[in-house]
Design brief:
By secondary structure, this protein is mainly alpha-helical. It has one domain: MFS general substrate transporter like domains (Growth Hormone, Chain: A, Up-down Bundle). Helix content is 79%, strand content 0%. It has 16 helices and no strands. α4 packs antiparallel against α8, α10 runs parallel beside α15 and α11 runs parallel beside α14. It starts with a helix and ends in an 11-residue tail after the last helix.
């Protein structure tokens, strides 16, 4: 088996585990809200602060990854996630839930700048869109598994069991990743450094260049990240409050969001070759806006699953598109820094929106996050039409 394929398989399993784990707590908020008498504001504080921790952690992990072995750092992050999962069933209320969610979010911060950066490094010259689509889809699959099973397991045998199950998945992923990559040369697991040690001013100059290159994509990165976090956090709560559905059925409906999104991500490479990135991403953001508007006008119950499924397709197609765009304008020596920065942008938008949505939902209602997402997606569409001529767009 070629080293690139071994690395892709490793990153895919890590992505599945990482994104599945960070979905657990938001999915269980309907349970925790009843169990610990949480308000929407407290939920916003927990999720918003968790994203803020991830925001800074991913940024600095991206910086510190320079010239370091990505495999070692990835295994560190995965191991910390396993430890957090083992502790989580012992939470007693808001404070302990808040503290452990921070630990969970910090631990999950290792994967995206390192895992996506590694794929960008190894596949930049060959089958980039295919590799990005596959690894993105496996991350989506992890979320799908979590969504499809968590609320059902919580309702039938108890809310602590999903944490134990994902602990086992994590251990299997770590062992598999170690075995697959143990004979790969260390040079293939590090960033290629073509620069000598730089002064602080020179490093600042490098980041200015990265920001300049990403300025066109920044609104889309922020909005896509915010859409993912807001939907995962508030859609179960929205359905729990506004429908007579059981937690198991709510879990099934939310799983349609990630399930159809995962399938779409698997076929992104084919869609890209037929249609082109720019047309796909414009259609995605217009669809996200439309589906969010449909959701908040309270359609009949039978239409909600269709809306959620279409919303998932549109949301999850944006990620491999944006990652491929960024990869093309990123030098190999800056993979960790750049992908750390773009995930900081994504989490930054989500952090602000989760904070404000929690407080405003207590005042006006749980529909608030979805109107925000609809408006933000329209903004993303406008930013594409008025893109800077300096931005690289090979498909337009």
């Amino acid at each position: 088996m070629k080293n690139n394929i071994k690395l892709l398989i490793t990153v895919c399993f890590f992505h599945l585990f990482n994104d599945g784990v960070i979905s657990l707590v938001p999915l269980l908020f309907p349970v925790f809200r009843t169990l610990f008498n949480l308000s929407y504001s407290q939920i916003g504080i927990i999720t918003g602060t968790g994203l803020a921790v991830s925001l800074f952690a991913q940024f600095f992990i991206g910086i510190l990854s320079d010239k370091r072995n990505f495999k070692t750092l990835l295994l560190t992050g995965m191991s910390l996630l396993v430890i957090a999962l083992l502790i989580f069933p012992n939470i007693q209320g808001f404070i302990s839930l808040f503290a452990l969610f921070i630990l969970l979010r910090f631990s999950s911060s290792f994967f995206h700048p390192l895992g996506i950066g590694l794929i960008s490094k190894r596949f930049k010259k060959d089958r980039l869109d295919w590799a990005m689509g596959i690894q993105s889809a496996l991350g989506d699959l992890g979320v799908f598994i979590a969504i499809a099973s968590t609320l059902f397991i919580a309702e039938t045998i108890g809310w602590t069991y999903p944490f134990y199950i994902w602990t086992i998945i994590g251990i299997i992923s770590i062992v598999l990743g170690y075995i697959l990559t143990k004979n790969i040369p260390k040079t293939d697991l590090k960033q290629q450094s073509i620069h000598q040690k730089k002064l602080f001013k020179e490093k600042i100059h490098d980041y200015k260049k990265i920001i300049t290159k990403l300025r066109y994509y920044a609104p889309m990165l922020i909005i896509s990240g915010a859409t993912w976090g807001t939907t995962l956090t508030y859609l179960p709560l929205f359905l729990d409050e506004n429908t007579p559905l059981s937690l198991s059925i709510i879990g099934f409906i939310v799983s349609l969001w990630i399930g159809f999104g995962t399938i779409a991500a698997f076929f992104y490479g084919h869609l890209h070759s037929k249609i082109g990135r720019k047309k796909i991403i414009i259609l995605c953001y217009l669809t996200i806006a439309t589906m969010n508007f449909f959701l908040i006008i309270n359609p009949i119950l039978s239409i909600i699953p269709v809306i959620v499924a279409i919303l998932g397709i549109a949301t999850f197609l944006t990620f491999p598109i944006l990652f491929s765009y960024v990869s093309e304008i990123t030098h190999e020596s800056n993979e960790g820094k750049t992908f750390g920065f773009i995930f900081t942008l994504q989490l930054g938008g989500g952090t602000f929106l989760l904070y404000i949505s929690g407080f405003l939902s207590d005042v006006f209602g749980i529909w608030i996050p979805f109107i925000f997402m609809a408006i933000a997606s329209i903004v993303a569409t406008i930013s594409i039409f008025f893109k800077n001529n300096a931005a690289q767009d090979q498909d337009s």
